[in-house]
Amino acid sequence: MPNRHTLAREVSVQGVTLHAGVPSRLRLRPAASGAGISFRRVDLKGSAPIPALWSNVAETRLGTVLRGPDGSSVGVVEHLMSALAGAGIDDCAIDVEGPEPPLLDGDALSFLVAIDAGGTRAQGPRESIRLNRPVEVGSASAGAKLVPAAAAELYFEIDFPSAAIGRQEFSCAFDPETFRREIAPARTFGFLQEAEHLRAAGYGRGADLTNTLVIDGDALVNPALQRFPDEFVRHKILDAVGDLKLAGLPVIARFEGRKSSHALNNQLLRALFADPANYRVGPD
Which residues form the catalytic set? Predict the structure, then answer.
């Protein structure tokens, strides 16, 4: 039976947050087998750990926000959760000094580098979730689906009116090497015409031309930052991997996203767990 993994030693990263645009520092610490992933707002006195689970998702407008029983919250967890999934980390205690993890390079690779520096350690046996039947949410215009499969797979398609993006689709197996090479480097993106409105509302204040792909009309403002021609759809997969990590155990299935969002990704997990007949839990 495969083992669960945690960090071999504590590591930390710091930088500016995506939305609040304020400094943030993370400490990623080893955790006991079976503890899972949890966040704690150490900048808030007396705050309790927040288990990184689908049931604790409180907001999904411009990122996945977790909220604990004491009301403390951590926003934009998807990039870090994606990196933890790609690195095969099952148990980790995360201390956050700030409202969100730092944006770093706007990808998951930045967090993978930190995880690499800490190394990993095998511990107790690991179980996974396998699908008994397809589970799907959404509408005619957008949707998310989990389909039974022998191994984890990812597929996503997007379609934006901007010629800088257009229609893109990407599919791949989900394994550590493929994730690190094809998905983790994909940066987040945004639209210049929306920036002023978002910042006035308290969003996107940490995004700039060094960490975010910025689209102005039909043109990419900072093409030198682009790592893949289809980086936009790859980043959507990155986000979905992070959102699915909130299942609490690896989900061995084919994920299919059609213009899916953080909201739909969370709805998909809620639909999955709404009926125990949808899935089974057993050795990975």
Answer: 262
